[in-house]
TrEMBL record, chains A, B:
Transmembrane segments: none
Superkingdom of origin: Bacteria
Protein name: Phosphonate metabolism transcriptional regulator PhnF
InterPro entries: Bact_HTH_transcr_reg, Chorismate_lyase_/UTRA_dom_sf, CP_lyase_PhnF, Tscrpt_reg_HTH_GntR, UTRA, WH-like_DNA-bd_sf, WH_DNA-bd_sf
Domain HTH gntR-type: 8-74
GO biological process: negative regulation of DNA-templated transcription
Alphabetically ordered keywords of this record: DNA-binding, Transcription, Transcription regulation
GO MF entry, a single one: DNA-binding transcription factor activity
Organism: Microvirga makkahensis
DNA sequence: GTCAGTTGTCTAGACAGGTAGACATGTGAG
DNA sequence: CTCACATGTCTACCTGTCTAGACAACTGAC
């Protein structure tokens, strides 16, 4: 895909493969010895050691000199339910986590044809763009960019800045209730800026959700793009 | 997180950030000049050039000497609906894609406490484990590992090998219909083995779905873990 | 204690990644 | 044409990655 390699070092790829094997249950307790792993991946023992060092620093592995390397009990990801009524604050409180939202930036944009179709508005309509950070117990979980009609919700930015909750901000702007109409999901490597904002590793992965929320009349109230840190969050859909 | 860096080269991180900006719409048509990008990221111009070279090789950018660098019309991801009735073959046919499934490996495992809880069976029950690859129009989209009760579905492996469809294989084993009960989603960097199986870049990202399918009586029929290539697939949930 | 097998540490060398600077070459506005 | 500005190419140098080999130190079985 690029001139030479792919921009990911060998030890990183080995580390990713070991992590994946742990997630699969392929490796459950003790890792193979460094020499065996080196042979299996066709790399030098030092390269394996570096991969293990990275996973140890992450708290995923535990090395015992003379005995071997072992898998730690991994910390659970925070569960994030996705349904027709997705509310960040409620979700966190149910898991005994203290939710908060922080405004990063806000400005105006004019809706292009894509955004106009999503929000069912005219091309060129003024939209509030709201960048925010979702935090639970002080740990950043996700970063969102929301788009609202500036005409319909003139005070939404201030309301969010005060409350730290989109649900609450919408309520102040007259939206009694809303529900999720559509959610689209994909994933990417985290961007440099987002890694800084969410204080995570530069090689982290984000789940990207693009969703439309509608009011009780079915009229779109917001388009929201959220990047969830994949190693801190698990999205759950109950389909009953 | 590790001794020195994070195992991702500088040019790769710059490339990821540019890609992310394109996805956001922050960059829509023309990129800033190489010198400006270098200044913005605090790196050398050559490093920016390498990042651009990688994105150009991916078909995302187009460079015109003396004029500048521009964003190409990006190819759409294949839409993969996730609902209570998720069927790979039907989904692909609706998008005029030719679906196929290939068996990678199959063996037996004994259910541990986690798997027993998911499939509502006793610990120690024999389970078929089925590794398969889902392909659309010759392009690998995802890799799955399914677990079935060996007692209830003795011939499921053969049935899948013949038909290349889990739905069809289950039907032959007496499951008239089934539906999705729960889907859990996270994401990771692709493992070396999966990158080879799905013939993608070593630095690709996968969406990991862990799901339970139940029959009409509500009894679990399979636990399935699927890794979708994030740059080829978009998961869509309609929540009406 | 002995021994096989494990992780820890050191040295040295080949090669890719990143920085720095210089200059060539194409483009479009004036 | 001229000029500012864009990308293309080259050399030189330093640092980090990966390989290779050797040896030390620790663990558990015998």
């Amino acid at each position: 895909m690029s001139p030479d390699g792919d921009g990911v070092t060998l030890w990183r790829r080995v580390a990713d493969d070991i992590r994946s094997n742990i997630g699969d249950g392929t490796i459950s307790d003790a890792l193979p010895s460094e020499l065996e792993l080196a042979a299996r991946y066709g790399v030098n023992r030092h390269t394996v050691r570096r991969a293990i060092a990275a996973l140890t620093a992450d708290g995923l592995l535990r090395v015992e000199r003379g005995r071997g390397t072992f898998v730690n009990n991994k910390p659970q990801r925070i569960v994030y339910p996705i349904g027709s009524r997705t509310r960040f604050s409620e979700n966190m409180l149910k898991q005994s986590l203290e939710p908060s939202g922080r405004l990063i930036k806000s400005d105006y944009v004019l809706s292009d044809s894509v955004m106009a179709a999503l929000l069912k508005c005219r091309v060129g309509t003024r939209l509030h763009r709201l960048d925010s950070l979702a935090v639970a117990d002080g740990i950043p979980l996700s970063r969102s960019t929301s788009y609202f009609s500036a005409e319909r919700f003139p005070g939404i930015i201030e309301a969010y800045a005060e409350t730290g909750s989109i649900t609450e901000a919408l309520r102040r702007e007259g939206v009694v209730d809303y529900r999720r109409r559509e959610t689209r999901l994909t994933a990417e490597r985290v961007s440099a800026r987002d890694a800084e904002l969410m204080s995570c590793a530069a090689d982290a992965v984000v789940l990207i959700s693009r969703a439309i929320d509608v009011d009780l009349e079915g009229q779109p109230v917001q388009f929201i793009r959220t990047k969830f840190l994949a190693d801190r969050v698990e999205l759950v859909m109950l389909q009953s």
